[in-house]
Amino acid sequence: MTTTGKKTGGLNRRGFLKASAATAGAAAGSGMLGAPMIWAQNIKDVELNQVGPSYSVIADICEQASADLGFRIVPQTADSTQLMAKVVNQPETIDIADLEFWAMQKVWRSGQLQPVEIAKIAKWGEMTPLMREGKNFDGSDLSRQGTMPFEVMYTGGPGDTEFAAGATDHATTMPTIYNADTVGIRPDLIGRPIETWAELFNEEFRGRTALVNIPQIGIMDAAMALESMGELTYGDKGNMSREEIDHTINRLIELKKAGQFRAFWSTFDESVNLMAGGEVVIQSMWSPAVTAVKARGTECVYQGLKEGYRGWGLGMGLMGHLEGIKLDAAYEYLNWYLSGWQGAFIARQGYYSSVPSTAQQQLTANEWGYWYEGQAATEDILDPYGAVMDKAGAVRDGGSFETRMGNVACWNTVMDEERYMVQRWNEFISA
Amino acid sequence: MSRSSGRTPVLTPYLQVAPLALIMLAMVGIPIVTVVLLSFWQSDGIAIYPEFTWDNYRLVLTSPVTLTLFLATLKYAAITLVATVLIGFTCSYFLVFHVRNLKWQIGLFLLCTIPFWTSNVIRMVSWIPFLGREGVFNQALMAAGLIDRPLDILLYSDFAVVLTYIHLFTLFMIVPVFNSMAKINPSLIEAARDAGASGWQILWTVIVPLSRTGIALGSIFVVTLVMGDFFVVRVMSGGQSASVVSAMKNQIDQLFYPEASAMAVLLIVVVLMMVSAILRIVDIRSELAR
After folding, report:
1. Yes or no, beta carbons of A426 and B47 under 8 Å apart
2. pLDDT of residue A177 exceeding 70
3. What would the mean pLDDT of A297-310 be, rounded to a whole number?
4. CB contact (8 A) between residue A264 and residue B239
């Protein structure tokens, strides 16, 4: 190319065609994504800091995006709690924050985030109604116990620090990943079917159960179990009254003194080790932790239960200080996120994408069938890094996307009586 | 003294302490002042408002949890202290009075420090596969026919927590005790023996009193380390027990910084009282100057 160019002393016809086609392609591409066109020269200098929990901010995804988009996405992981503190106290250190929906309840009112203009998100219309409309697959309303994503999804517009009751033109965050959580079990050590949350507190498993030591999640798992034992019916497990908190914690203390629990885990690896080491046979767990236990060759099932799942999800928030070319780049990144590559990547970790249709295009039929449709794998299922995580013939625990996400009983949340709840939780742990 | 008294000599000591004083002010003074200030401010679970309130202290001081937490932590500190003093004193005694060869003495002393070549976390976590239900120790006991089902008490229990503390912190006792024992003039012991003292009498009336500076220093290390810990408690008790700092961590995780600060101030007060009690029993300054 260059040699021919030099020979003719200028741009030859072929080169010119190629260059203009590329420009046209880029223009068409960005037009398609609904983001304004950005001059390639400037955008190369853009660097966006994406901060969020490790299950959402993944270096491989950021690298792929940087390669596809031509500017740099810098991943940085932080626990949800650290991230909330950063968003409020050091907003300038973040460009894009991956926030849990329950965290939005706390940080949105700080006014440090700017709303996402829905008109600039090309695939918003294709987004699952779970997130976009707060509706279940059959059109019914989703459970409102806890922080249902829809409740924190919309806002009036720039500068509004409240949530809107219905859909508006401005989203607080752009939904990315979500999942339905339940308990992990060791079927080989239990040896009988497990169908209800009440089993968590069954005397049969005395000393062989565990709860997560994150107060607002641990107490909800406990509430699921107490409710299914028929002890009491909560008005809202995601927003308990003081009496409900007292009852729950008092029962937990009784159970603890009776030796029901082996441990209360705080980190991912603790939960994996408890399960893989045979210390517990049934416990609160995250989906990838179950995968990690399986990867060690130990049988472990993420058991769907009849009372339903505890749902959670994350959205990407734009920090208030983003403007000009950086803001444009951020919108391009948001649009890239929904275009399929990321959706397929996280599907292989067991999470769902907010736009499943684009993820489907990037998954094989076998993968789509296994992860989303609850069908038996026709060949080995690989995790995002290429390791075998389930054999041909295996079926995903809990079944299809519809049966899992369609059966969410409550959502991860923060309660109005949170301060009191944390204090009582500390009492439980130290009892 | 009088002849050399000019402007410079007056300033010299101040200049000499200035670097350390400045570092302490920046690294210790400012953070503590911040924590104290924070403990009087208000928060709504996310933002903090600089408005004076006693609420945080009211919450901390009236809650029965606080007392439970402090008692639990003090219990850990007391057991750990007794065990580390016994082990630390015995090891130092052996090194100083039984190992006569200086090379051997240094060699064995270095041996004590070998665990410190790896990280604290690794040393702690390595107990887990050893003590677990399917761990090495339980399997060995079962193979030997001593027990027929695994002992649960070995891991995720107070036993595991205290064991780990002792493992991690004994060296902090050995070093100062060894140091003060090594300073004991051997002729004192010879004199005691010549005067007809028995081995126990020498130990109790000569060596223990002369080692007390080391024991006091070591105690300060061990007590403050245990009182300030949350990680060992969390991991080794499997979250089943809490300490003052682990409860603080729960509050911080929920962004209740002012409550956590109030708890921190309370902890500082308690630890200061403990340290000053130790210093009252042993006048470390005068002993070190010896």
Report:
1. no
2. yes
3. 92
4. yes
Spans of all domains in chain B: 65-289
**pLDDT band (50, 70, 90) for residue A17:** very low
Burial profile B192-224: b = 16 or more Cβ within 10 angstroms, e = fewer: beeeebeeeebbeebbeebbbbbbbbbbbbbbb
Residue A12 has pLDDT above 50, yes or no: no
A84–B255 C-beta distance less than 8 A: yes
**CATH architecture label of A39-180+311-363:** 3-Layer(aba) Sandwich (3.40)
Round the average pLDDT of chain A to a whole number and report it: 88
CATH 3.40.190.10 fits A183-307+400-430, yes or no: yes
- Architecture of the domain whose range is B65-289: Orthogonal Bundle (1.10)
Domain boundaries, chain A: 39-180+311-363, 183-307+400-430
Poorest-pLDDT segment among A21-25, A54-58, A152-156, B167-171: A21-25
Report pTM: 0.79
Q: Which of B68, B134, B259 sits opposite A277 (nearest CB)?
A: B134
User: Which chain B residues have a beta carbon less than 8 Å from that of A260?
Assistant: none
Give the ipTM. Answer: 0.75
For A426, the closest of B47, B238, B250 (CB atoms) is: B250
